[in-house]
Amino acid sequence: MTTELMAAEAGNSQQKPNFRTITLSGFLFGLGLGGFFDGVVLHQILQWHHMLTSVGYSDATVAGLKLNTLADGLFHAGTYIFTVSGLVVLWSGLNRGHLSWSSKVFGGSLLMGAGIFNLVEGIINHQILGIHHVKSGPHELAWDMGFLAVGGLLALIGWSIRRSK
Description:
about 75% helix, mainly alpha, elongated, 5 helices
């Protein structure tokens, strides 16, 4: 090994790990998994709402349910894109051979992504557009605020874990 190569390797071993790839990957996975949880648990299992139930497309009619099912499917396609994007970022980092792994960075980033998904989706779809709410009925606003609070809490916990690397 040449002196230059040994010096370069010594310099590289003292560099601070670069966690950008693992952070981005975890964040994208978090966005996708946060969306999948919302869609699978709230839309399909509990059937509290569908994408368009608060703007005149009731899930009590066949036509309304068909339209809501399509909108839910498009929503899931978006969350699928986030998840696959996280996999692509992770995979490309591994293939380049300079991925610095940290479970805290990945897990924290994943929680941040899931929390931010809840915050953005809750603010845009529930509050600004009003196309659906977490659970319609007498305590609709409380359910929506709880959804936002959980999103904020997930993001803060993720950020805290990510920083503790």
